[in-house]
Design goal:
Helix content: under 10%
Number of strands: 0
Largest sheet: none
Bound molecules: zinc ion
Number of helices: 0
Shape: rod-shaped
Amino acid sequence: MKKKLKVIGERLYLTKRVSWTERKYNPNYGDDRICKCGHPYYRHFDTYENMAPVGCKYCSCGKFKEQA
Ligand SMILES: [Zn+2]
Ligand SMILES: [Zn+2]
């Protein structure tokens, strides 16, 4: 009996593993901490977007940095 030729070793998709770091609100950090922009820590996140780090809503400060 003749064996059927079967293509093996080829997958439907070539896959690539992708990873990234998600920055999220840290409730333990301290809401009262003041940023260099003059606004508190929690204002740098969007409460309507699952606390996404969208940046300060009062100014264009993109990343919280505590006042020295
Ligand atoms: Zn800020
Ligand atoms: Zn600000």
